[in-house]
Amino acid sequence: MRRSIEAKVDWLRRLNQWADQRDARKPMFLCGDFNVTLDGESELDTLNRSPEEREVINALRASGFVDLYRDFHGEGDPGFNSGIPITRPANTRLHLVLGPPSVVPHIKSAWVDLEHGGPIDDLPGEKCAPGAPVIVEVDGDVALTH
Q: Element (H or E) spanning 108, and its range?
């Protein structure tokens, strides 16, 4: 498990370095399944919950990115989209939509599509991936600045 954490932290550090080299005048969004829980207690040597993983994600956030979902809703609604372990109901959020703070006042809505995992019509019995998508809708007329 330790090697998996180290490899993931190394990749996240490279992402941070790449993002630090961006042109700050151009807004950037980083979206995806970061597979790092930011809620609850961190756990040594536990993939997705290690202090090292959280530290790197928090460094990325400190470099000018905000969690658009959390900034829109406030700390009271963390937007859980994944169950850990996978058999549990949503109890954490692994998918993040990170962007410039200037976008927050222009967010129209932000939600987690917890219905995404229902059966797929064309594939009886099949389901989507276990992590529900996080959706942030921004006013189309917003002038983005960093």
A: strand 107-112
Q: How many CB atoms lie within 10 A of CB 34?
A: 21
Q: Domain spans of the chain?
A: 2-138
Residue type present at position 68: L
Residue 103's nearest CA partner among 58, 146, 57 is 146
Q: What amino acid is encoded at 17 in this protein?
A: Q
CATH of domain 2-138: 3.60.10.10
DSSP string, 28-81: --EEEE-----SS---TT-TTT-HHHHHHHHHHHHTT-EEHHHHHH-TT-----
pLDDT digits (tens, 9 = 90+) for 24-76: 777 889 998 888 888 777 777 777 778 899 999 999 888 889 999 889 988 77
Answer whether 85's CB lies under 8 Å from 71's CB. Answer: no
